[in-house]
């Protein structure tokens, strides 16, 4: 175990920090290094972290100069501009895609396993569970950048059969260590904040939009399982269930001991995913992934963390 050496980009962010701390707990003898530029991360998320930290912008990082001939067992690449409302097409695409291109060029030398965050946003508008073989239909530039990353990963994996590259399409993730994100934080977080402040939760009319809300602990488990994958591939990571915004309000009311009715507002977004749901067939077979948290149990666990008695 002492020889295990992992690098996590975006490790001060929401999902990244949960992954880092889980790796540290599950593999206490492993060497960990985090890269983050704090654009969408916070050092407070890494309380108790015992590894190395590199403060760098991945879009300009010289990997060889930074790490020399250091060898990693795997690189978890979670860093990206995660704010889907950032509409600067150059910045969003350049930073997300070029960061990944540089990482792949570095990893290729030693065929270092790469496990990277793709996104369910690549599927665009959907009315049924999304399958990995569905073509990309990005509705915003964030999703476009993730689709291009998938293209790069597929090409690299096809050219190097003995190099394992795993893409994970995260669905609507919620859980501890997301508060620093502000507006892009999950609906679970924002609605709970409103309700704890004595306000009616604001959701889009008429609350029948559905999301695959997936607890971050399941996302971390699926990401770590990718270390055992036998071949390259892109997989969905979600709960496998689509739950409506109205249902989410009901679940939050039960967890918080409140009884608020939704405050329905108009949806200002032209391109909006009214439905997301992960088909988990492929990830169950390829990674042995099985989500452990329903929306009810995930929200209950999160509320205990967010609002300790």
Strand order of the largest sheet: 3-2-1-4-5-6-11
The CATH superfamily of the largest domain bears the name: NAD(P)-binding Rossmann-like Domain
> How large a portion of the residues is in β-strands, by DSSP E?
15-25%
| Overall SS class | alpha/beta
Task: Summarize the main sheet.
Answer: 7 strands, parallel
Question: Which CATH class of the largest domain applies here?
Answer: Alpha Beta
Uncertain parts: none
How many angstroms does the end-to-end distance come to? 38 Å
| Helix percentage | 25-40%
Walk me through what this model shows:
The protein is α/β, with parallel strands linked by helices and 309 residues long. The model has no long low-confidence stretch (mean pLDDT 95). The chain contains nine helices and 13 strands. The longest helix is centred in the N-terminal third of the chain and has 22 residues, at 89-110.
Tag the structure with descriptive keywords.
alpha/beta, 17% strand, two-stranded parallel sheet, single chain, 309 residues, UDP-galactose 4-epimerase, domain 1, globular, Rossmann fold, 2 domains
Blueprint (SSEs and pairs):
Layout: E1 5-9, H1 14-26, E2 31-35, E3 52-54, H2 63-67, E4 74-77, H3 89-110, E5 113-119, H4 141-159, E6 165-170, E7 172-174, H5 187-196, E8 202-204, E9 210-211, E10 213-215, H6 216-225, E11 233-237, E12 243-244, H7 245-256, E13 263-265, H8 281-287, H9 295-306
Parallel strand pairs: 1-2, 1-4, 2-3, 4-5, 5-6, 6-11, 7-10, 8-13
Antiparallel strand pairs: 9-12
